[in-house]
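Appendix B, record 7
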Amino acid sequence: MLQGKHILLGITGGIAAYKICTLIRDFKKVGAEVKVIATPNALNFVTKLTLQNLSQNEVYIEEFDIKNWKPEHISLADWADIMLIAPATANTISKIAQGIADNLLTSVACAFSKKMIIAPAMNVNMWNNDAVQNNLKILQKRGIEILEPESGFLACGYMGKGRLCSLDKIYNAVEETLKYSQKLKGQKVVITAGGTVEEIDPVRYISNYSSGKMGLALAKSAQSMGAEVVFITTKDFDVPFKKVLVKSAQDMQNAINEEFDTANYIIMAAAVADYRVKEFSEQKIKKENNDSITLELVKNPDILADLCKNKTSQTIVGFCAESENLMENAKTKIEKKGCDYLVANDISRKDIGFNSDENEVTILSQDGAIKKISKASKSVIARKIWECISTK
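Structure tokens (predicted):
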């Protein structure tokens, strides 16, 4: 799995830095390419010459030691398939969490857009510090994997949690992440996001509270797994893959139909309005003396049901947002629509769902299997959804 892969390894100034020499050797033994970025303090624990000999590459330390036109923090980020920081001190963790880029390692981390793994090691009191724990949560919300330290006797003489986790655990995490990054290679994924907008007149419309964040997280996760992503959205996110901006349910259906025949996966994460006004008013509707106004609504196309009727080999995933009787309504919906999977979430909860950065979902499949994913950031939820639906 690691043969020919480019591993960018950051080493910070902790006593566990010496252990990373063995990890470099293990990566090289299976044919991986390793480049090391060491902070100046890391060299107090392991020498530059040792790291160069083991990695068979130059060791990068100074930020502006530029040997060609491209700054190193960009060229190294572009070169790597994955970035691993081990050991990671409280200082470096906090800098990355807050976007501070004051040395080469933190500058690369700031510019790195692919998968990153961080293995902390520090004194137990530093690990338990509220600021450090908050910064770790920030990193996890961004999709960075944290390999928590182990408990035991620490080099500083304390007993407790803070010792670098096992090298086997770090190695396996790198291998699994790179394996995951190829899971959807060669697959085309179409994902919808946001709430559709159904116009009443030039200034008014019918819509809903969907932020599009869950669909965005699913699209980013699919790209990290190697997929070709088509993102059909009512929200104008800045994304590094094909984006199709739409407004109404009919716009969304037309955009999906354009991509349908060549898609392998279609995920309907958008909140599609069930109804639209029968007749759009070309002019602003004026307020009259009447205390009420009547709008006649007609049903929008049932995009999910239509996709399921016409599918050939595509895997189709629907979403179900409910304010009551979540599982009962979800079971009815997956049977009625005919999708391969249905992701159900409870919008009555204020801590998850619409506009939140976190979610908690239950995945139902056509064979009757049910998988609950506990509350987590939407990026983590997205990865777990893909782990479930891409095994079919």
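Remarks on this record: The CA atoms of residues 28 and 45 lie 21 Å apart. The chain has a mean pLDDT of 91.
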